[in-house]
């Protein structure tokens, strides 16, 4: 069998596949997030324990030899580890907002733009550059003790294989220090961010992805394991999105819009990033928005509704949600795509005593759809569009997304990230798998022409409301502020 490991933000999963791509079994374990005044941290030890637990449970359920395994996981944030891959402090999540004030200053003084013009990646509070700069100011001793500042999957790979040094891959390295032309670190970016003296913390880049043998924890000793790509790029591979112009929308905690490109445009508004892939010259123009299912989770919890009721709630309100509008920017670190606005917060408009829970829920789903349309346009979508993620489990929301986006959707269900991790590992080890069979869509969803026309007008109104909200969110220049962590 082939095993894909997907270390998500709130859920760790391992999936077993046969050679045709059929799922044999899936094991999952939740992991916690610690939120405190805008800081969002994770216990790296808990995350690693969840990885080994799902792997042990999976291999016990499917007692077949493991031919190879691929690893993917959440990106960004900072996972400080020692030489053995053990945590030096709690991991800081990509959702963290403590560097908000620092990014505000860099937006004002041109640093964000200067970095984007070099790398194609726009800084946001939860990306490694601002977080390392914040730690350098507030917790320098942690950086002094650390051997490397890695991403989540890199910590897991080092510990599963017992590798003597930290290593990442070009996809995780893409933000924010990688020059996408040379596929190596740009020391000029480190200078711009005041991190030149911390250069030693950047892990080696495996290009192609690093490989190693499992040491016996979770996977049988000797199992070939490949590190990467990280979850956005793995999902694109697992959804069969590999042709220039084609796109993928991941409806998850992060609402990620990805478009395959062979170009590199470092102009325009600094936003999103270019994710380098294992094919030199091919990149993903990524707009990973902070809005996503987390916004819907909050609205459902606030209204007392359950996830199982989502389809019924969407059916219980008309298009336009009885006049209710939701700008779904609920993240404590603001928004990062298709623009960077750390101070942006959600708006609920048109709410009255007559507003029903169904109106709020549908307006939130519509608002997330408008945000996705904005991101896909900015990413340059010209071809087909695949969609995956937890949000696609709702047939009603998937139909709504097709209407809001005004285009057909290729729905790819199941463990898409884990599939991509296996396909990447197979490529790295020279194992031939039928990628077409592995990535065949589950169903196709076409938009309704009348509703699509209605939502095209609604999208224009969304952009007008968003412009006003962004203007209100912008601070004046001043001293660097932000949360101090937990």
From TrEMBL:
Mind listing the UniProt keywords for this protein, alphabetically? Kinase, Transferase
The UniProt family comment states:
Belongs to the FGGY kinase family.
Gene Ontology annotations of biological process type: carbohydrate metabolic process
Instruction: Pinpoint the Carbohydrate kinase FGGY C-terminal domain residues.
Output: 277-426
Can you tell which superkingdom this protein's organism belongs to? Answer: Bacteria
Q: What is this protein called?
A: Carbohydrate kinase
Pfam families named among the record's database cross-references: FGGY_C (PF02782), FGGY_N (PF00370)
Recorded hits in InterPro entries, A to Z, give:
ATPase_NBD, Carb_kinase_FGGY, FGGY_C, FGGY_Carb_Kinase, FGGY_N
Q: Name one GO molecular function term.
A: kinase activity
Q: Using the record's annotation, list all stretches that form the Carbohydrate kinase FGGY N-terminal domain.
A: 1-238
Under the heading SUPFAM superfamilies, the entry gives:
Actin-like ATPase domain
């Amino acid at each position: 069998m082939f095993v894909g490991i997907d270390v998500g933000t709130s859920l760790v999963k391992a999936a077993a596949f046969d050679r045709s791509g059929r799922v044999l079994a899936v094991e999952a374990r939740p992991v916690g997030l610690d939120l405190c005044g805008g800081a969002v941290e994770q216990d790296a030890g808990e995350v690693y324990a969840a990885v080994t637990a799902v792997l042990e449970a999976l291999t016990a359920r499917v007692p077949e030899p493991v031919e190879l395994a691929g690893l993917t996981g959440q990106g960004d944030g900072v996972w400080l580890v020692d030489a053995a891959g053990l945590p030096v402090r709690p991991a800081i999540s990509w959702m963290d907002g403590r560097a908000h004030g620092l990014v505000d200053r860099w937006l004002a003084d041109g640093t964000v733009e200067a970095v984007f013009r070099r790398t194609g990646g726009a800084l946001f509070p939860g990306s490694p550059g601002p977080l390392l700069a914040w730690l350098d100011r507030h917790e320098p001793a942690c950086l002094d003790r650390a051997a490397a500042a890695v991403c989540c999957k890199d910590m897991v790979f080092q510990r599963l294989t017992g590798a003597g040094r930290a290593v990442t891959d070009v996809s995780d390295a893409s933000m924010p220090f990688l020059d996408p032309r040379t596929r190596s670190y740009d020391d000029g970016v480190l200078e711009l961010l005041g991190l030149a003296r911390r250069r030693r913390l950047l892990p080696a880049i495996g290009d192609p992805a690093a490989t190693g043998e499992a040491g016996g924890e979770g996977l049988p000793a000797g199992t070939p394991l490949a590190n990467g790509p990280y979850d956005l790029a793995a999902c694109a591979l697992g959804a069969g999105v590999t042709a220039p112009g084609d796109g993928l929308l991941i409806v998850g905690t992060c609402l990620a819009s990805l478009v395959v490109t062979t170009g590199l445009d470092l102009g325009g508004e600094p936003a999103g990033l270019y994710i380098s892939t294992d094919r030199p010259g091919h990149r993903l123009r990524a707009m990973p928005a902070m809005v996503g299912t987390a916004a819907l989770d909050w609205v459902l919890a606030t209204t007392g509704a359950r996830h199982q009721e989502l389809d019924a709630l969407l059916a219980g309100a008309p298009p336009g949600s009885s006049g209710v509008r939701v700008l779904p920017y609920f993240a404590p670190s603001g928004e990062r795509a298709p623009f960077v606005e750390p101070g942006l917060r959600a708006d609920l408009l048109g709410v009255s005593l007559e507003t029903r829970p169904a109106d709020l829920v549908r307006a939130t789903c519509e608002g997330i759809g408008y945000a996705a349309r904005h991101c896909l346009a900015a990413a340059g979508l010209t071809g087909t569009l695949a969609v995956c993620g937890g949000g696609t489990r709702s047939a009603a929301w998937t139909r709504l997304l097709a209407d809001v986006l005004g285009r057909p959707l290729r729905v790819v269900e199941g463990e898409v990230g884990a599939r991509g991790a296996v396909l990447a590992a197979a490529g790295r080890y020279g194992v031939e798998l039928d990628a077409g069979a592995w990535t065949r869509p589950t169903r196709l969803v076409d938009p309704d022409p009348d509703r699509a026309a209605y939502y095209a007008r609604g999208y224009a109104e969304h952009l007008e409301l968003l412009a006003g909200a962004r203007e209100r969110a912008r601070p004046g220049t001043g001293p660097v502020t932000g949360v101090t962590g937990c």
